[in-house]
Design goal:
The complex is a heterodimer of chains A (about 110) and B (about 110).
Chain A (H helix, E strand, L loop, with lengths): L4 E3 L2 E5 L4 E6 L4 E9 L5 E8 L4 E4 L2 E6 L4 E6 L8 E9 L6 E3 L3 E6 L1
Parallel strand pairs in A: 2-11
Antiparallel strand pairs in A: 1-3, 3-8, 4-5, 4-9, 6-7, 7-8, 9-10, 9-11
Chain B lengths: L3 E4 L2 E4 L5 E7 L5 E8 L3 E10 L2 E4 L6 E3 L9 E3 L8 E8 L7 E2 L3 E5 L1
Parallel strand pairs in B: 2-11
Antiparallel strand pairs in B: 1-3, 3-8, 4-5, 4-9, 5-6, 7-8, 9-10, 9-11
Classes of the chains: A mainly beta (about 110), B mainly beta (about 110).
């Protein structure tokens, strides 16, 4: 499969804890993006990291990218119940125009 | 308010019937996309369009058709040839190929 793979498939934590989700891919990429989806809604873009970057921050989000291991991680610090959602990584395979490939997602549940 | 509007939110198809899902954007984006989401499968690309009057097949185009007569509009028709149409359909747009996607709120298609 050319899809990315998120790990774990599901994660349940308590409010205030940190949540870490991982994404692995198999091909060369130009950039990797993370999206969030609340149940029954569209996806919302969270953060983009380019292949020449190793780490990026946005508010409570921290994304790392290791191109040698073909993997990325998304860390959400001090989680809140409102962070409950599915999180997807997405990447554009090297040489493919306009086509983002999405992983299967991690379902995060933050318990109050 | 700029964004992407998908309609209807829920759609039911009878056997042998073609149905059309609407997607309109006022973001002045050149590229538009249709994705299908099945439970546990993540998002799969059906069709994408980089410019008016041009579109390309994605990974699962069989049983679907699209048109791009206007920059703002990218309707998707689910034909009777699509034997398993029940899914959540998401429309998205982007300003250029490497950048983030903006998603609509989705259409849930079910078979009667």
């Amino acid at each position: 499969s050319q899809q990315g793979e998120e790990d774990p498939q599901a994660l349940s934590i308590q409010e205030g804890e940190n949540a870490t989700m991982n994404c692995s891919y198999k091909t060369s990429i130009n950039n990797l993006q993370w999206y969030r989806q609340n149940s029954g809604r569209g996806l919302v873009h969270l953060i983009l990291i380019r292949s020449n970057e190793r780490e990026k921050h946005s508010g409570r989000l921290r994304v790392t990218l290791d191109t040698s291991k073909k993997s990325s991680s998304l860390l959400i610090t001090a989680s809140r119940a409102a962070d409950t959602a599915s999180y997807f990584c997405a990447f554009r395979r090297g040489g493919s125009n306009y086509k983002l490939t999405f992983g299967k997602g991690t379902l995060l549940t933050v318990n109050p | 308010d700029g964004g992407i509007t998908q309609s209807p939110k829920y759609l039911f198809r009878k056997e042998g019937q073609n149905v059309t899902l609407s997607c309109e954007q006022n973001l002045n984006h050149d590229a538009m996309y249709w994705y299908r989401q099945d439970p546990g499968q993540g998002l799969r690309l059906i069709y994408y369009s980089q410019i008016v009057n041009d579109f390309q097949k994605g990974d699962i185009a069989e049983g679907y058709s699209v048109s791009r007569e206007k920059k703002e509009s990218f309707p998707l028709t689910v034909t009777s040839a699509q034997k398993n149409p029940t899914a959540f359909y998401l429309c998205a747009s982007s300003i250029e190929r490497d950048e983030k996607l903006f998603f609509g709120s989705g259409t849930q298609l079910s078979v009667l």
